[in-house]
Amino acid sequence: MTITRLGRTLTYVLVAAIALAIAVPVAWVLLASFKAKGEFYDSPWTLPDGLRIQNYVDAFVTAHMGQYFLTSVLVTVLGLVFVLAVSIPAAYVIARYEFRGRGFVEVLLLAGLFVNVNYIVVPIFLMLVGWDRSLADVLPGGFFIDNPAVLSLVYAATSIPFSIYLLTAYFRSIPVDYEEAASLDGASRFLVMTRIMLPMARPAVTTVILFNFLAYWNDFIIALTLLPGDGKTLQVGLLNLMTAQKAAADYGRLYAGMVIVIVPVLILYALIQRRLIEGMAAGGVKG
């Protein structure tokens, strides 16, 4: 019993230390985003003299973070729509139907899990540039480069192996009795997938959404490469803001830009954390 209590106490201490290591920097950035320029020359741990909302106004309007924010939202939402539209039916078919080559398809998907997209971003860029050159007579301004929709497709394509792998494992953990009962009632395969299996797999779908949202929202390398024009994403825009504000020594606007990047992730996690935990624990419980 003593060893068990000691282990539990150490676990709580470790979890509390990790939580503090995450919460303290986030709280510090939030407080710093309300400070005026002169306040940064004092102790970094002092509270701001007031809530300087102008830092956020300057970040949104002057530094174009509002425009970058909308671009990131568009790219992330489109990417999630694309990856779910492909991954859900593909995972269901792999999990439930026997067909020739299914094992080979699964091996290919597993191999895709080990491909780091940052290592292939240059070949992707060159491929898209080649496609733009081949369409130069029809679309002289180009289509594939500097197109948020194409960036969303690239995001979705590179995250499909992980998404299908996770959803396939969850679909296989669901008893086939539900599908058989629905089929006896005359439901088609599409209705079985959308009305029966998909609601039951909601925790896994939520996990896929969160992990892919984080990957798309926080991406820098791919967005920097495929969106070289003015329509940047939030991460690339934050780098530009960081460079500009370091030269101007106006750190309040810089930290306001950081908060703009962080807050959507925190809001999404707060909304779906319960289903995320369910999705992560479901494999062990059902298995």
UniProtKB/TrEMBL annotation:
It is found in: Cell membrane. The keyword Membrane applies. Residues 69-272 form the ABC transmembrane type-1 domain. It is a multi-pass membrane protein. Pfam families: BPD_transp_1 (PF00528). The chain crosses the membrane at residues 12-34, 68-95, 107-129, 149-171, 192-217, 254-272. It comes from the Bacteria. The keyword Membrane applies. PANTHER family: DIACETYLCHITOBIOSE UPTAKE SYSTEM PERMEASE PROTEIN NGCG, MALTOSE TRANSPORT SYSTEM PERMEASE-RELATED. This is Sugar ABC transporter permease.
